[in-house]
Amino acid sequence: MNLAQARTERENKRELKVPHTLVIITSIIILVSIATYIVPGGAYEKVVKVVNGSEKTIIVDGSFKYIESQPQGVFEVLQAPVEGIIGGAEIIAFLFVVGGAFNLITRTKAIDFGIVRVTNIFKGKEILVIPMLTFLFSLGGAVFGMSEEAVPFVAIIVPLALSLGYDSIVAVGITYLACELGFSSAMLNPFTVGIAQSIAEIPMFSGIEYRTIIWFITTCIGTVFLMMYASKIKKNPKLSLVYESDQIKRANLGNYGSENEDFRMSHKIILLLLALCIGIIVWGVLTQGFWIPQIAAVFLATGLMSGFIGKLGTDEMADAFIEGAKGMIGAAVMLGFARAIVIIAENANIIDTILYNLSQLIGNLPPMIAAYIMYPIQMFINFFVSSGSGQAALTMPILAPLGDLVGISRQLTVLIYQLGDGFSNTLFPTSGILIACLGLAGVPYGKWLKWVLPLQGILFILSLGFITIGSLMQWA
Asked: Cβ distance 370 to 362 under 8 Å?
């Protein structure tokens, strides 16, 4: 008994080492605000060009000049989170609507009974769910740039993962992480590969054979990592980094395994409606240009119809929606504070200075070393510019011709960009989609960071291997 108590005490002490998400983000805000007094101001000239049918602000290579810096004082820093919340209003509104709508669907109990059916189908073979879903979401990221679209799926997969004996981290892994694995190693992603290759002036989606190999290997590695963690949690749930919060979720899910007789026609209709909702979202993204407002609207309609089909009273529907939206307040605050980091750097005019000096670092290096250095540079830039297409417009006009000078093919430069941009999306708190997914799953950023860092180390080494092979085979 004493040994058990001592072990529990040690585990509690270990948990205290992971700071609150807001503490981590605030610490970064302080560091960046200090940097505004050290890093000089600078700016590139920018022009607007049409790339793949959409307007992009492109940097003019060789146009950098130092300008007056704007150090951010205490008052400016305190304003930045408010500006971050305002600037992130679209994603925050999306979180509130999806959280509220999904809670409406949950209140009907249809998802609970659906989960029972899936659990019974995969009983004894639960681990098979992970590779099936991981490859599916990864393919979405690789083919049509699925990333933001993962957010509503997180809410659906969390209760399924818990019912299969896993945890909320596994749910985020087989949805958001899988999308980013595909997004990072994509062969056809129009928002990264398409735009970057257009700016680099190489044939659209060329090099697809090598990129497909990279996608398959990357997804396999991510899947194995996820399955190993899931198996460990299945054997001993207390090893989960989110064990305590997941226990509360499991209690809320209840035990419906013995209530199959109550699986009514209304529940089946709601599940079909949810499947239709997912189908409409995928169709809309692929063919109609659906974005966050449209996806949220489809989910809201699904939630409202589910409430009526499930015979919830209007007051109960209102309470359920508000309760679900209320659960997203923490994620909304984190998102605003994370955006504050970028706002401070932009207001101080230091982002272009950082980019210029990093590009100068590469100029006189041997080709292979320069290629290796370009990869962490892209990761670093992604901290401040989390948009894949935005980062392509920012870096490719500079790094593509710079690669020519040091002997790096433009095809390889594009690969370095997409690997550096994509994988780190699962790492940096400045990624609004990451914060949104963690918020919906109820996973603290600090615990997610602790879990994903070993995988990031593996992906970093793997990426260097892909870059080395591309360089040695003179990939163009």
From this structure: yes
> How does strand 41-43 pair with strand 46-51?
unpaired
Return the closest-CA partner of residue 425 out of 224, 172, 65.
172
pLDDT digit string (tens) for 72-108? Answer: 999 999 999 999 899 888 888 888 998 899 889 888 8
Return the structure tokens found at 271.
């599940």
Regions of the chain with pLDDT less than 70:
1-18, 52-54, 253-262
- Percent of all residues in the chain with a pLDDT value above 70, rounded to a whole number: 93
Amino acid at 457: G
Phi/psi of residue 396, each to 5°?
A: -65, -35
Spatial contact of 419 and 463, defined as CB atoms under 8 Å apart = yes
Return the bridge partners of 46, or none.
59
Among positive and negative, which fits the CA dihedral 272, 436, 177, 285? positive
- CA–CA gap between residue 303 and residue 185 (Å, rounded): 34
Note whether 49 and 55 are within 8 A (CB). yes
Question: Which of 458, 473, 422, 460 lies closest to 182 in space, CA to CA?
Answer: 422
What does the angle CA 405 – CA 357 – CA 389 come to, to the nearest 5 degrees?
75
Phi (first) and psi of residue 54, to 5 degrees: -130, 150
- Report the C-alpha gap between 7 and 24 in whole angstroms: 27
Task: Give SS3 for 369.
Answer: helix
Provide the pairing of β-strand 65-67 with 54-59. unpaired
Q: Residue 58's beta-bridge partner residues? A: 47
Q: Which tokens in the block code for residue 301? A: 């309609």
For residues 292, 293, 297 and 299, what is the CA-based torsion angle, rounded to 10 degrees? 20
Let me know if 365 is exposed, middle or buried by CB neighbors in 10 A (0-12, 13-18, 19+).
middle
| Three-state SS letters, 356-368 | HHHHHHHCCCCHH
Q: What is the helix (H) or strand (E) element at residue 56, kind and residue range?
A: strand 54-59
* Percentage above 90 pLDDT, the chain: 38
Alpha helices in 201-264 (DSSP H): 208-235, 243-253
CB atoms within 10 A of CB 32: 23
Query: pLDDT tens digit string along 191-250?
Result: 788 888 888 888 878 888 999 999 999 999 999 999 999 999 999 999 999 999 899 888
